[in-house]
Amino acid sequence: MSRWVCTVCCWMLVLCLWTVGLQGADVETEGKTIEVTSAGIACSEALAARVGLAVLKEGGNAVDAAVSVAFALAVTYPVAGNIGGGGFLLYRSAEGETRALDFRETAPAGARLDMYWDEQGRPVPEKSRIGALAVGVPGTVRGLYLAHSQYGKLPWSRLLAPAIRLARKGFAVYPFLAERLARYEEQFKQFPESYRIFFPRGRAPKPGELLQQPDLANTLEAIAREGDAGFYTGPVAQAIVRAVKSHGGVMAQPDLENYRAVFRKPVQIRYGDFLLYSMPPPSSGGLVLQGILNTLQATGFSADRFPHNGADYIALLSEIEKRWYAYRNAYLGDPDFVHIPWSLFASPEKAKEIARSVSLAHPFPARQLPAYRLITSSEKPETTHLSVVDQQGNAVSMTYTLNGAFGSFLVAEGTGVLLNNEMDDFAARPGYPNLYKLVQGWANAIAPGKRMLSSMTPTLVVHDGDLEGVLGTPGGSTIITSVLQVFLNRVAYQMPLDQALAAGRFHQQWLPDSVFVEKDRFSPTVIQELNERGFHIVSRERIGDVQAIWRSQQGWVVGADPRGNGLPVGF
Ligand code: DON
Predict the structure, then answer these.
(1) Does residue 469's CB lie within 6 angstroms of at least one atom of ligand 1?
(2) Would residue 415 show up in a list of annotated catalytic residues for this protein?
(3) Of 448, 446, 509, nearest to 475 (Cα)?
(4) The 3-state secondary structure of 235-272, one letter per residue
(5) What mean pLDDT, rounded, does the chain reach?
(6) I need a labelling partner for 370 at 20 to 30 A (CA). Which of 177, 243, 257, 268 fits?
(7) Where are the domains of the chain?
(8) Which CATH code fits 42-170+212-266+374-570?
């Protein structure tokens, strides 16, 4: 895998809170699970988790906590936390109203289908991954502002105050961040402003050294004072546009001014007695999860017949995943631009048909699925994760991202804002693989103003009308299958949350026609058995960084993935 893909780049926080009362000792632990009675937050970085905890203790609700953690992560977790990126937020009120907020980036008006092609018409990966041309119009600030204006309780400026303090006074660089900055030093060197901020001593910071971001503190203050207008208009917007243009990008002032975050109807998925709510397009997460879970049920799957992570289980799940990623890559895109075949993904007949076609004995050749012709055809077809639960029982599950680690590596001069490289989530040219090796079609081709297709899968699980779980993860194309596996580990295999999070993960995404398995997490006998059946097995360092909260007898179990840098907190 390229270093681009292996890194935690996108990302997510799951914050959950429940409050029966605000009393109780704090519980916190590094990268594990904790039992809490009232409220909890699981997210990938400790300082930000504590910011959210304080908001909850002050009587802030789930959305308040999510907003404060998201702004804090933009300072303390620059690898993925952001104000220069975008994402999705799933909200569920204590009364059960559920809404999906889309604040995905858009292609600038000046974007063109062939903007990343060389003279032979082949996409040049660096163009859509590093620097100004890779930048999509950021959605995070408008999304958080809209969420707060509809559902927030504490004053907006209160929620930004901790982030401003962390940026201005600085924080001690922790080992994970030090390692990631060192790993990407060469990329940062291409952008002197970015290098100056993150390598203030002319070298990668060591764990324990202070990282201050005064420009970012000023930008956050403008947002605290003026709301989203402090980012999308005025001096900050002008500086962002100036920077993007001077580095060869195409984003202009109207792109920022016209950017809109939108509420959408979540995808609902039945699995036994459980009802899952997940993200609709422009994320593929909800629909692909729906197709896979419907098909799994249509096979008559039960955990007692499929030993966990045994050869049959891996064969079954990965063959189902292959079919649905093929449909994803052929048909899904921005619903405002392309027709979404909702009924295909929801269809019980289609699920049965796929269930019948799956063989555990042999993999089906990926290129023989009809989607392949659609994607490689030169003709354009006509028809395309933070979670919080508060004292009242409202919940938020949110995934947001810069796409690759540190996004485009470009910080707009004077603003401290690290900009995304989300444009690479489009099919830079239909039929050619992107950063996550996803081979996608015309439905996800570049067009001005269009949102690029995502795999982010913020998810809420409901049982008997009550909130049961909140989960999500980073991991590019593996997001959907990581959410799927943690859900099945918990619900079908009845694992406690810590085991459900720790268990080895695997992934199939149609093309490449391979099953990716986490290194050293699977029995050699199982791998050998799969090889003998003809499955092409590729080992990967680590898949996902799931942050989850699940109902328990005392209240909630809050869990950060043991693979990551996360910290579950609560009371
Ligand atoms: O929206 C998407 O699907 C990707 N931009 C997410 C990126 C990601 O998860 C990177 N994390 N490893």
Answers:
(1) no
(2) no
(3) 509
(4) HHHHHHHHHHHHCCCCCCHHHHHHCCCEEECCEEEEEC
(5) 92
(6) 268
(7) 42-170+212-266+374-570
(8) 3.60.20.40
